[in-house]
Amino acid sequence: MKLTVVSAGTTSPSSTRLLADRLTESLTKQLGAAGETLEVHVVELRDVAVDIAKNMVTGFASPALQAEIDAVTGADGVIAVTPIYSASYSGLFKSFFDVIDNGALSGVPVLMGATGGTPRHSLALEHALRPLLSYLRAAVVPTGVYAASQDWGGQDAAELHDRIDRAAGELAALMTGAPSRRRAADPFAAFVPFDQQLADLGHLDT
Question: What superfamily would CATH give domain 2-205?
Fold first, then answer.
């Protein structure tokens, strides 16, 4: 099975990548216990940031960026993690998903995660990330994982670990469930433009 991990962290190392790695580790263990093997591909958005910006203004993806887009849209599951700036996802994270065709993630199981300096930004998962991924028709798991700075140590670390395992378990269930691995049909795939419908009617009159 193929997993693509999207990390929008801008530093190396970053707490965003750390959370992405923890989620991947938990998912790998849970799928392994179910007899599944996992092929993991990590997309570090900072490495293709310039390519994303050029795609935004030209409409064309570089080979490097296209390879990363293909890795996301062709995966059996996706983990997408972003830092939170000004109570929302980063501009780099949003720009990457903006250059992905609408519907290309249709039916793909996605686990969303985010990091920030304060717990106050945790709601960004629900008011920003979930609507974005749902708009792309992804199958977003119920549990999103937010990690504030304080969550990496002490009692909060245990609670973060539990959230990670719960969310990874939900992603594993979607990835291994037969219905969830079938891409949802595009309801507009058979759409016929209005002018074509009129032309067809005219042809029938003759």
Answer: Flavodoxin domain (3.40.50.360)
